[in-house]
Amino acid sequence: GAGVSQSPSNKVTEKGKDVELRCDPISGHTALYWYRQSLGQGLEFLIYFQGNSAPDKSGLPSDRFSAERTGGSVSTLTIQRTQQEDSAVYLCASSLGLHTGELFFGEGSRLTVL
Amino acid sequence: RKEVEQDPGPFNVPEGATVAFNCTYSNSASQSFFWYRQDCRKEPKLLMSVYSSGNEDGRFTAQLNRASQYISLLIRDSKLSDSATYLCVVRGDSGSARQLTFGSGTQLTVLP
């Protein structure tokens, strides 16, 4: 499709397990962002990529979180040893560059940690 | 103080009403401003950018007040389909590594 694609759309896991969330941005978009949204809350910035580089990782909540982007395209957000407080919708967005305010979001990956 | 603050609402208004939301931001060096719309359990989508001179798109008017560090969104003749959460978004200056900051959103319900 032409939009940002995220998978899985829903993930239920047990506390302590690792999860991987995938984002496939719009072709040609150099900037890619990960946000987290808890129920009824705003968007919490996690990390962004310009190309394959992530200049600012300070938004990641803990060292259990990591993200990578390869080939300037697909990105993976990995959460190790999941905790219940990690339950949220993880939204990926892409944009033509960092200087535009128009982000195109995927439908998100809803993570539930039991 | 949060970087971007919005009244969470909810705002419940009848069809045809005019409703306005405000959003304040803390970084006086912020460069650009946007309103996004998020439908229930959906992803956010850009509604409109906010320009210094103010701008209008159909029933929607956005304004920026740099001196008081707030932006506003006015919706005229509201429709049922306008029911959503409206997110205020601020871009920091060139030194801001976090780029775009989203407010927590203002929930609008337009009633028949």
Question: Can you put this structure into words, describing what you see?
Answer:
Chain A is mostly beta strands. Chain A is 0% helix and 46% strand. Chain A is built from no helices and 10 strands. Chain A has strands at residues 5-7, 10-13, 19-24, 31-37, 43-50, 65-69, 75-79, 88-95, 104-105, 109-113. In chain A, the strands form 2 sheets. In chain A, strands 2, 4, 5, 8, 9 and 10 form a 6-stranded mixed β-sheet that branches. Chain A is globular and about 35 Å long. The N and C termini of chain A lie far apart (32 Å). Chain B is mostly beta strands and 112 residues long. Chain B has strands at 4-6, 11-14, 19-25, 32-38, 44-50, 55-57, 60-65, 70-75, 84-91, 100-102, 106-111. In chain B, the strands form 2 sheets. In chain B, strands 2, 4, 5, 9, 10 and 11 form a 6-stranded mixed β-sheet that branches. The N and C termini of chain B lie far apart (37 Å). Chain A binds chain B through residues 33, 35, 41-43, 45, 48, 55-56, 58-59, 91, 98, 101-103, 105-108, and chain B through 32-34, 42-46, 49, 87, 89, 91, 97-105.
Keyword list:
heterodimer; A: 114 residues; mainly beta; globular; B: 112 residues; 6-stranded mixed sheet; 5-stranded antiparallel sheet
Rough shape of chain A?
Answer: globular
How many strand units of chain B?
A: 11
Please identify the structural class of chain A as seen in this structure. Answer: mainly beta
Compute the separation of the termini of chain B in Å. Answer: 37 Å
Rounded mean pLDDT score of chain A? 92
Helix content of chain B: under 10%
| Count of alpha and pi helical runs of chain B | 0
Number of strands of chain A: 10
- From the alpha carbons, calculate the radius of gyration of chain A and give it in angstroms: 13 Å
Share of residues in strands of chain B = over 45%
Shape label of chain B: globular
Concise account of the structure shown:
Chain A is mainly beta.
SSE map:
The complex is a heterodimer of chains A (114) and B (112).
Chain A: E1 5-7, E2 10-13, E3 19-24, E4 31-37, E5 43-50, E6 65-69, E7 75-79, E8 88-95, E9 104-105, E10 109-113
Parallel strand pairs in A: 2-10
Antiparallel strand pairs in A: 1-3, 3-7, 4-5, 4-8, 6-7, 8-9, 8-10
Chain B: E1 4-6, E2 11-14, E3 19-25, E4 32-38, E5 44-50, E6 55-57, E7 60-65, E8 70-75, E9 84-91, E10 100-102, E11 106-111
Parallel strand pairs in B: 2-11
Antiparallel strand pairs in B: 1-3, 3-8, 4-5, 4-9, 6-7, 7-8, 9-10, 9-11
